[in-house]
């Protein structure tokens, strides 16, 4: 194979959209684009009458036949599909891809299922192609994809599932049984997420929701994703790269007040290292006084806070964009095993320290006012007995459960500090956190990641209000919150189930 890529998409002469964007991105990355247009327009239809029109179905199919006769499908590295003007074009493209895969099994196929935008509720109300064209894309092209790059609306249309946040996007994407890079996923009121999932693992990145964004950003992201994938990037590396590169181009275009994407901003667009969020983030752990928090802000030293209630933390003046908390969020009605799935998965990561992962009570047990009643209610719902240590957390569990709603799941995340420490170290910690050796071990690890011992040592609070290990755990939660904000975190499980209140049952690390 050589570094040529076949593009099946629109050609819009006067606007930086469609196959023209794809070709520009590929050329900059030293690939050779071979573009078969589906339409030839003078400008984007969103700007007014575009001029030109659709390439006749027979002409489009004939051009693909010419590529096959020329052997382009055998030597090419990839095929990228975008906008189609008719269902017949889609069918011709599917036949071409099938022939290419038969002759060249290593060819990579990226399907950008361009068909609409709008409210991602799984209906066709936002389609801007004929419904039969959109249905042909879903039926004929999506099964042939090695990577699919829908926006939130398109993912909802393809799967018939609403996409309202990253959790629902992940659930919908998994039904396609293909790697999916979905864009424009709502993350609160002022952020949008890009989510990459392959059914086993997932990662995400997020950007500010901006007004007046030029057309063509979806075409740009799909082409960047293809280049990154062909150059060997996968997973979080790919997700972060394409997201921050798109954001750079968008901001450069807005700063220049350009109606088109300024593709010159692609130059030097892959800086080393992860993108760093400028948003404040907060790590929280329960303590005798209420909650202890560590706040991280770009360009400022870490801060310690004590909160009487969780609501005080959620509404603090700094308004942290991401909060990672060491407390269960979401409760099963009936047991799926020894604890929730997320707890079972984290135990596997903590060999030798799996006992630090407590099994959450079933939801019915939360109403208990005594340890004996909690045991009885948990057992009556099909669960096991509960330890006194577990029952001691019930006040905090009820407080969190009362404060959180499903629309807060893009801001507040359950985490597990011991698993977070193990992730940073590459292995479970050697000593118990309550021992002097365990404290020193964790202080040293936190210091290597920017939370120096001067903040935590000597212990800054009376032990009657906050234990030393509570502060260590809050600091680790803060580092996890920063990972979440930077799109570097992982969710266990990748596709978390929702409890009866709509809260995702996941542990994020």
Automatic annotation (TrEMBL):
The keyword Nucleotide-binding applies. It holds the Pfam family Phos_pyr_kin. One of its GO terms (biological process) is pyridoxal 5'-phosphate salvage. The keyword ATP-binding applies. One of its GO terms (cellular component) is cytosol. It is an enzyme of class 2 (transferase). GO terms for molecular function: ATP binding; hydroxymethylpyrimidine kinase activity; pyridoxal kinase activity. Its EC number is 2.7.1.35. Keywords: ATP-binding, Kinase, Nucleotide-binding, Transferase. InterPro entries: DUF429, PM/HMP-P_kinase-1, PyrdxlKinase, Ribokinase-like. This is pyridoxal kinase.
